[in-house]
Specification:
With 371 residues, this protein is α/β, with parallel strands linked by helices. It has helices at residues 26-34, 41-50, 70-75, 93-105, 117-127, 151-162, 178-182, 215-228, 241-250, 274-283, 310-316, 327-331, 345-351; strands at residues 2-8, 59-63, 81-82, 110-115, 133-137, 167-176, 188-198, 234-237, 260-263, 266-269, 287-291, 299-301, 321-324, 338-340, 353-360, 363-370. Helix 4 packs across helix 5 and helix 10 (274-283) packs parallel to helix 11 (310-316).
């Protein structure tokens, strides 16, 4: 019997769609819930586990009670072995560490964990390189290379690992200072490493920062984009140094890490939430989304820009999504496709295929997007 462990951080990603850029700390979690945030970590863990069902009786799932794993297992149709005890609705980083250590003590072959970079840090603290571990993406800020690109791929990769069909690699655990992040400053550091099953298709790379020498290229992209912008249209700009630099060249002061909405050259909603965007779209039917891939990863939706939710994307439409990137950022992907992890499979598939990526003034490339 092959044992798999599962640890879920139930509040991971809670602040994403309401524009809070993270979920660390009880006060922030309370604020997120007041703003109408809905937890998705359990659901995303269940999506990963469904990919393990074809293994049948070949594996046993060990997990923690309630939302830390048992609920996800039962949603996926798996009867788990439940360890430990927790207070429902009051989980902490200490619970994550304790759960991971118990999984290691019970000799699981692989530890699956659902969360973001903070959860990866807790797992790293608990088990280090002792046993293989793989992240199910559920957080807001995911810069670590220990996460699959989507929940279902975490499950498929876990199944391949149990069948002996994939190799292990040493993968970086990165984390940001959330307070600095919400204040518009990126302060990331390497926290440690985990031993992780690897597939180039299924595992994201570590976040790579943009290069300062790309200023001339960004100005050229801005010139092309400015030529295309139309009066009366709502433009939704995703986060990042690329979009911020382009916005500056166009002539408005965009937030670095927020999602901003622009109408007729003026910001009408800075650091917008999903609710803000949907409200604007209810009166501005003509709209376009402008996003840039995450450097080194290629993600265009689902990492740090969760206010641009599946409902927002549906209302705007695939034809009005504009991807901007420097040529260097595209080349750094080494042919690996762009991808989306919106949390809605139908929207991810709608985005798949080829999109035009604006790379300069009147310059663009067709680039593949993977669902």
């Amino acid at each position: 019997m092959k044992r798999i462990g599962l640890v879920v951080n139930p509040i991971a990603g809670l602040g994403g769609r309401v524009g809070l850029k993270g979920s660390d700390g009880m006060e922030l979690q309370r604020k997120a819930l007041e703003l109408g945030a809905v937890p998705h970590a359990v659901e995303r863990a269940a999506q990963a586990l469904q990919a393990l069902l074809p293994l049948g009786a070949e594996f046993e799932l060990l997990t923690y009670p309630f939302a830390m794993g048992a609920e996800a297992a039962r949603q996926a149709g798996i009867d788990p072995c439940v360890l430990g005890s927790i207070q429902p609705g009051q989980t902490s980083a200490e619970d994550t560490v304790r759960a991971a250590r118990e999984m290691a003590e019970n000799e699981v072959r692989l530890l699956l964990f659902a969360g973001g970079d903070g959860t990866a840090r807790d797992i790293c603290n608990a088990i280090g390189m002792e046993i293989p571990a793989l992240g199910i993406p559920a957080g807001v800020k995911i810069q670590s290379a220990v996460y699959a690109t989507a929940p279902r791929y975490a499950g498929e990769l876990a199944a391949a690992f149990l069948r002996g069909e994939t190799e292990l690699r040493q993968a970086e655990v990165m984390d940001l200072d959330e307070d600095a992040f919400r204040a518009g400053r990126v302060s990331a550091c390497l926290y440690g490493y985990l031993k992780t099953p690897y597939s180039q298709r299924y595992v994201q790379g570590v976040k790579v920062p943009s290069l300062s020498r790309e200023s001339a290229v960004l100005e050229a992209i801005a010139g092309d984009l400015a030529d295309r912008m139309k009066p009366g249209w709502l433009y939704i700009f995703g986060p990042g140094s690329t979009t911020q630099a382009v916005a500056t060249h166009i002539g408005f002061d965009k937030t670095l890490l927020g999602v901003d909405a622009v109408l007729d050259g003026k910001i009408v909603s800075a650091d917008a939430s999903e609710a803000d965007l949907l409200r604007l779209l209810s009166v501005n039917r003509l709209a376009e989304i402008v996003v840039t891939p995450i450097g080194g990863q290629g993600c265009i939706f689902g990492r740090g820009n969760q206010p641009i939710s599946p409902d927002v994307i549906r209302k705007v439409g695939r034809a009005h999504i504009r991807v901007i990137s420097t040529p260097e950022k595209i080349q750094a992907l080494n042919g690996h496709p762009l991808w989306a992890d919106t949390g809605d499979r139908a929207v991810d598939e709608m985005l798949s295929g080829y999109l035009v990526v604006l790379t300069g003034y009147k310059e663009s490339v067709m680039y593949k997007v993977m669902a």
